[in-house]
Amino acid sequence: MGKFKKGGGKDIPGVNTSALPDIIFMLLFFFMVATTMKEVEMQVDVKKPVADQALALEDKDNVDFVYIGYPIDASQGTEPRIQLDDMLAPDYTFVSDWKQMKAREGKTPFDIVTSLKVHKDVGMRIVSNVKEELREIDAIKINYSADQRD
Amino acid sequence: MARREVGEINAGSMADIAFLLLIFFLVTTTMEVDAGIGRTLPLKREQQNNEPIDIRERDILEILANSNDELLVEGKPTDISELEEIVRDYYTANANGSETDPTMPTYDLRTIPICQQKIGEIQGLVDADPDNPDLNRELEKWKTKLALCQEIPTGSYYEISKMAIIQLKNQANTSYGLYIQVQNILKKVVNELRQKKCEEFGWDDYFELDQESVDGQEKIKMLRVLVPERIVEAKIER
Asked: Cβ distance B156 to B147 under 8 Å?
């Protein structure tokens, strides 16, 4: 017959934490893989159009983003505006300077795709102006950002 | 003093908890995929070089989207749902070299001798002016055409008139949404026709072609010759 130890419950066994690192690492890896960095603080509201032929944008390091939409800050008016990085551009003529400023080592504006993220209700005039501005500096590779489905 | 042996807590279920968490995040996280329609604008330089060449009405497909978001294709009011069929017809009506539809672009026969002759001519011009980018590009194009002729068992193919362009016209208040819808339809038809060509030649699917390999790039070039995507956009007055 077994002996029953009395009063053995006085010592609280330590929690085995040997698996904790595994879990933390797993979570860490998961977030590392899944997280997409927020590129910029959005100043304009962009509801992208839908296009079923849209293809995923590759090599995002060599892409510049131009946002065109309605200002979120009501004091900026209700007309569509262009956002370059974190700033609202006063008008479209700033696009080419900005694009040239963003030039990367050993790359010309020609090599770097410009992704236009434009609100679907915005009129074509502003888009056309931006494209003309980009053509001036040979930044002719354009990607019209669109959702693959709604 | 001897330390008392402490019983260990069974940590076997820790893995289950971790998996639960993992699955939870997998399900709830939505990753924003950046997708879009890629286009290359015409170079500024090219336009100056283009001397007014006689442009035939039949070669041009004019798509006008006006400020009220109404479509006019070749001057006729058209619903967006009809556009796909019109564009497909534009590409395929005379694709076998016939004159099935005299309002649509012609297709010209390309054979190995024609390509070789052209290459010879252009090579002569390139030798005289080796740094001319337009001539060099033209030469490359004809070499691709020759390769294409050799790829096809009959040694020849029909190529859409080189002046065949799709002209997109927008007005100041045309919505970007409509513009993208039109672009999407153009892309769709071109992708579909290129895919058809791939099947015809027994190649991999159009989207599966390896863009890194020389062979894949060559095939993509050939498909661009067979189903070109020449879109000209009229500028909106500033």
From this structure: no
